[in-house]
Amino acid sequence: QGASSSSGPAVCYIHGGGMICLGPEHYDIPMKTYVTHTGIPFLLVDYRLAPEVQAPVPVTDSYAGLKYLFAHASELGVDPARIALMSDSAGGGIAASVTHLAKQKSGPKIAKQVLIYPMLDNLNTSEDPDTAPFATWSVDDNKTGWGALLGDKAGSDSVPVTHAAGRASIEDLKDLAPAYIDVGELDIFRDEDLEYARKLGKAGVSVEFHLYPGVPHAFETFAPTTKVGQAAVGNRLKFLAGL
Known about the structure:
Elements: E1 8-14, H1 28-38, E2 42-45, H2 57-71, H3 73-76, E3 78-88, H4 90-104, E4 112-116, H5 139-150, H6 170-173, E5 179-184, H7 190-202, E6 207-212, H8 219-222, H9 227-241
Parallel strand pairs: 1-2, 1-3, 3-4, 4-5, 5-6
Keywords: Hydrolase
GO molecular function: hydrolase activity
Pfam family, one: Abhydrolase_3
């Protein structure tokens, strides 16, 4: 059936945690913030974690959550043409891979993708001396997360995009949903996020990108009352307002 006149947007959210920890119960505060300020309902996916499972299970679990939202859109009062995928950190990497999986499976069609300092590149294993002292998620942490998810393929440049979205080619990125990406200047994910945004643009995908100076990974979580933290949340809310 077509969307009713009262149907509205919705967001499928994939939480962070380095592929190895955290869950929906840790996201009460950010979910309350986003829902309160946008009025948009959120579905938060409880995907299985590495190392108990390995790739692509977190992605296929999250894809199942996205499909559930689409399948039940009518009864939930949701317009299926206005469903976004939103995520942070490891969840950002999972969400990016979900966009590729949805493309491979010819749906569902995601309206927008919001990737908050996403963990994309399994080859990000070299420490930057300029950012290392400020790392709230370190290169060593990154090795642990990717190792748990990918096992002996963690250092491979030939893993599929459904395992590590940073491996995507420009061709892989064509026809994906318009994207919003943000990251801190002192985040170890800075360069991979910049590169992913660049490749999305080259692929013809609309991208809104924010690089916040002088802040590390998850800066708005650790310092929510700072001007930069509030600005980041505000920019995400503005992007969602166009859903």
